[in-house]
Amino acid sequence: LFRSMATxxxxxxxxxxxxxxxxxxxxxxxxxxxxxxxxxxKEVFVPQNGKKVLWYxxxxxxxxxxxxxxxxSYISFDILRRVLMNYFKYDVFYCMNITDIDDKIIxxxxxxxxxxxxxxxxxxxTQVLEDVLAAMNLFLDxxxxxxxxxxxxxx
Length: 155
Known about the structure:
Blueprint: H1 2-6, E1 33-36, E2 41-44, E3 52-57, H2 68-87, E4 91-96, H3 103-121, H4 125-145, H5 149-154
Parallel strand pairs: 3-4
Antiparallel strand pairs: 1-2
């Protein structure tokens, strides 16, 4: 019985027979389209120097404990680099910076220090609420002053 089933078709242990696959015939050649933040639209990617692509990417600014967001950055850009190299056959030179000294580090250290001082005072719940509301009002004032639409959206 099994011999008659396998006649003319490849049958292997425990595997289903798969139909033959052929690439679809398209009229347009596959091209890479990337989002251009200046024009706010997707555009065909055309390297400046043939198949050679120089890619600089801003990496994370590490000023606190590492987290999944850092890993996402590395993994996402590595996948994109591999697609460029293995699928589109570009010769990619990829460089990512990792900033370890920045104003954010100094700011975070100051925030942590001030927060520890605040906690040592052991303020009453009503005082904490007043302080939170005062901080929120300062933030709302700053938001009103911001004219940059992108920055405003982030805040």
